[in-house]
């Protein structure tokens, strides 16, 4: 018997720059919000959805495959085809010589992505662990650091050897990488909330230049952020993205990083 959803569901999103096209309309009251909005980091959103504290959440794609009862709503995703700018490996040694990586605590899909890349590209069983959020502290305990989200913009590309993992993924496998998906528990119905989120996305995409300008007082930086939002990030979970997601989850399952690789979708908005 399916669980009856609460009258006012809880929706969890993170507030990284790449989710702002979804958050913009919600934070400006431009759509009805028949839900309580919760802001948290991606890894915590996954934990809270799994625990039942959230009803719908934008979570790392690997976390979908660690929940037996999760389904995906294709209304919104965060994906990339090639260079993404916000999933960055950095070190003071050549990438192929790296043996250990301290991972940003917000990172889960990217940590799995990293392990798959090193196994398939460099034939290495990489040692990874959760590190400090400060990039300069990560290298005290590991050969390299992995940072995601807005933090990656601040890494000094001149100081370190860096590798954009989205770029390496596409170069190695020729597929998009899906970083995050909207998930909920199978058997629950949240059509109104999902319709509202879909409307919010449509409004956000129409105002994406404004979103970039609101993030900074610098016109030059606003142009860079707009390029990131429009040229780096894919928000539609289309057929190519589904193929990339399936390849990622199949690879992760083979390596024991998740329990499932099937894609189940919400039947509705």
In terms of topology, how is this protein built?
Blueprint: E1 10-13, H1 20-27, E2 36-39, H2 42-51, E3 56-60, H3 61-64, E4 70-80, E5 87-91, E6 100-103, H4 109-122, E7 127-130, H5 135-138, E8 144-148, E9 161-164, H6 165-173, E10 177-185, H7 191-206, H8 208-214, H9 219-232, H10 239-254
GO biological process, one term: menaquinone biosynthetic process
GO molecular function, one term: lyase activity
Protein name: Chorismate dehydratase
Q: How does this structure look, described?
A:
With 269 residues, the chain is an alpha/beta fold. It has two domains: 10-80 and 177-254, Periplasmic binding protein-like II (D-Maltodextrin-Binding Protein, domain 2), CATH 3.40.190.10; 87-173, 3-Layer(aba) Sandwich (D-Maltodextrin-Binding Protein, domain 2). It contains ten helices and ten strands. The strands form two sheets. The chain has a five-stranded mixed sheet with strand order 2-1-3-10-4. β6, α4 (109-122) and β7 (127-130) form a beta-alpha-beta unit. α1 crosses α7. The protein is globular and about 50 Å long. 43% of the residues are buried. The mean pLDDT is 94.
């Amino acid at each position: 018997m399916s669980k009856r959803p609460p009258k006012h569901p809880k929706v969890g999103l993170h507030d990284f720059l790449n989710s702002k096209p979804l958050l913009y309309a919600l934070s400006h009251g431009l759509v009805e919000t028949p839900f309580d909005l919760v802001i948290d980091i991606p890894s915590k959103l996954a934990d809270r959805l799994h625990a039942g504290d959230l009803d719908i959440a934008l979570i790392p794609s690997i976390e979908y495959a660690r929940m037996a009862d999760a389904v995906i709503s294709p209304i919104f995703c965060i994906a990339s085809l090639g260079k993404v700018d916000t999933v960055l490996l950095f070190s003071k040694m050549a990438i192929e010589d790296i043996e250990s990586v301290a991972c940003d605590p917000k990172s889960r899909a990217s940590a799995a992505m990293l392990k798959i890349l090193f196994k398939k590209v460099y034939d290495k069983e990489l040692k990874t662990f959760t590190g400090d959020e400060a990039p300069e502290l990560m290298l005290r305990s590991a050969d390299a650091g992995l940072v995601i989200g807005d933090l990656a913009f601040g890494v000094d590309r001149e100081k370190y050897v860096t590798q954009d993992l989205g770029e390496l993924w596409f170069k190695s496998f020729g597929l998009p990488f899906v970083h995050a998906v909207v998930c909920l528990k199978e058997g629950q119905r949240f059509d109104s909330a999902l319709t509202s989120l879909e409307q919010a996305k449509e409004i956000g995409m129409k105002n994406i230049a404004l979103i970039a300008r609101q993030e900074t007082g610098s016109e030059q930086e606003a142009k860079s952020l707009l390029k990131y939002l429009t040229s780096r990030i894919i928000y539609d979970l289309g057929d190519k993205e589904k193929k990339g997601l399936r390849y990622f989850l199949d690879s992760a399952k083979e390596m024991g990083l998740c329990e499932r690789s099937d894609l189940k979708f919400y039947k509705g908005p």
